[in-house]
Amino acid sequence: MAEEYRHYIGGKWEPSSSGKTFESRNPANHDEVMGSFPLGTAEDVENAVAAARETFPEWMLTPVPKRGDYLLRAGLLLEERKEEYANLMTREMGKTLKETRADIQEGIDFLFYMAGEGRRFFGHTMPAELPDKFSMTVRHPIGVVGLITPWNFPIAIPLWKIAAAIVSGCTSVFKPSQDTPLLATLLVQIFEEVGLPPGVLNLIHGKGREVGVALVEHPDVRAISFTGSLEVGRQIAERCGAQMKRCSMELGSKNVLIVMPDADLDLAVEASAWGAFATSGQRCTATSRLVVLAEVRKPFTDQLVSRVESMRVGNGLDPEVELAPVINERQKAKILEYIGIGRDEGAVVLTGGEELKGPEYDRGNFIAPTVFDEMTPNMRIAQEEIFGPVTGIIRAMDIDEAIEHANSTGYGLSASIYTRDITNVFKAIQRLEFGVVYANAPTIGAEVQLPFGGMKNTGNGHREAGPQSLDEFTEWKAVSIDFSGRVQKAQGID
Ligand code: NAD
Fold it and tell me: Among 61, 158, 98, 83, which residue's Cα sits nearest to residue 319?
């Protein structure tokens, strides 16, 4: 019997009002059930929002350093449990142990960073144009917020939202992906254990189109922080727009790594292999396009293919494995469909291009790491997010053409250039339409103190992580204090 888990509402673990449940299964071995979870309803969302609303007035008045202290304690506890949770995360969502440890580490780093924010939470002071008047800005928590997350970073992405919301003085309802409910539950348990007051953080499991929609539609939810696909993000942004509700969108991308002729090819190949195939390409920053200058195309391609063919594919618990399963059957089918589309469009599969079969693979969702050559910028496989272990090489003649190809998609999250020429580095920094830009580093591997988010269809201008993450959950309040003893009128009115 699978262990049964519950929602977390107002500090209590509650079943679904529907009585229905769903299971979470290991993508490397479908026979392993990670747990049974309540299938949430609009009524459950109503209860969770009510708990968050009730708690908000007291929580917003709790001193900010005290709010930050809960984050510090949660970070220390997560550090103790890192190995245990990394093992469970590999079993729940597939990626290798090295990567699940890193996911949790990123969460710990952000908890510590945001705990420190509890003792900063800076506003500004600015001069007043009138004498004996003082002006400043302070942050004001936005209220009850809805946090909707994907499955590919089951700890780090929820924490980017939860920690920033907590320190900002918001209360929240967290709706994790249906593919990673166990890790979401364990994360919320940590906050319960460190004594976070009931109602500050609530958890509702279930489907996006029920629980997610109910949260987005709820009039008492003042903001939605969403990370996921463009398709769903667009629907949520439309619904939020109709209600004048703030929403922050962290969506998909079609990231790019440019290889210039003067690049250190060994580094460029390793960064491409890591960027394209870590987490089986299921990262929003995955290197799904390689723009390679004609002069180095042959040696780069040969080296990349041989590196990719050396990758061991299998269960992420095996330390030798570099490429783990993809999340679920639906995603596997979608990736295989895109590989077919690429072939039909005229791109050439250099390696991979198929589902893996055999005793090691038959109970899971395994696809061979796939490299396309002869990809051109307008092909669907160069434009649409595949979110799997698939990358493709696009040819360019010079830096200008390379940057043009890089910018030729509707997305704009992460881009990298490999070159030893400082001029190329600065041209790339200046012209790439991406929120995250690297020189001589892979497209993946964001650090928590830097703002994270994308341009164009990757988002709507918000950033997570870094000090900017507080902007998602606070309003700026402009405050002026007049100590002149007169009614002074601005703009020179007597
Ligand atoms: P998804 O959009 O299918 O689901 C994301 C979340 O939204 C899930 O919790 C889901 O249940 C919920 N949801 C689904 N439909 C909904 C609706 N109509 N209303 C409200 N909520 C709804 O994405 P996914 O498959 O879980 O994750 C993969 C996607 O996430 C990729 O596109 C990837 O690029 C993106 N992603 C982006 C970032 C980033 O920071 N830019 C980071 C990680 C992943």
Answer: 98
Helix (H) or strand (E) holding 92, with range, is helix 82-93
Assess whether the C-beta atom of 387 lies below 6 angstroms from ligand 1: yes
Ligand 1: does its nearest atom lie under 6 Å from the Cβ of 279? no
Q: How confident is the model at residue 36 (pLDDT cuts 50, 70, 90)?
A: very high
Res. 12 pLDDT band, cuts 50 70 90: very high
Q: pLDDT tens for residues 149-177?
A: 999 999 999 999 999 999 999 999 999 99
Catalytic residue among 170, 240, 247, 284: 284
Nearest CA to ligand 1 atom 16: 208
Give the helix ranges, DSSP H, for 380-452: 380-383, 399-406, 422-431
Question: Which amino acid, residue 12?
Answer: K
Kindly state if the Cβ of 251 falls inside 6 Å of ligand 1: yes
Pairing, β 133-141 against β 125-126: antiparallel
Q: Which atom of ligand 1 is nearest to the CA of 179?
A: 26
Which atom of ligand 1 lies nearest, measured to the CA of 252?
A: 34
Model confidence pTM above 0.85: yes
Q: pLDDT digits over 49-105, tens only?
A: 999 999 999 999 999 999 999 999 999 999 999 999 999 999 999 999 999 999 999
- What does the pLDDT look like over 254-286, one tens digit per residue? 999 999 999 999 999 999 999 999 999 999 999
C-alpha angle 174-79-181 in degrees, rounded to nearest 5: 30
Residue 284 designated active-site: yes
Burial class of residue 238 in the structure, from the number of CB atoms within 10 Å of its CB (0-12 exposed, 13-18 middle, 19+ buried): exposed
Q: Decide if 384 is catalytic.
A: no
User: What pLDDT shows up at residue 305?
Assistant: 98
Ligand 1 centroid–CA 331 distance in Å is: 13
Position in ligand 1 atom list of the atom nearest CA 331: 25
Token pair 């100590």 is found at 483
Of all protein residues, whose CA lies closest to atom 11 belonging to ligand 1? 208
Cα 376 to averaged position of ligand 1 atoms, centre (Å) = 27
Atom of ligand 1 nearest to the CA of 236: 19
pLDDT (0 to 100) of residue 1: 75
Q: What does DSSP assign to residue 72?
A: H
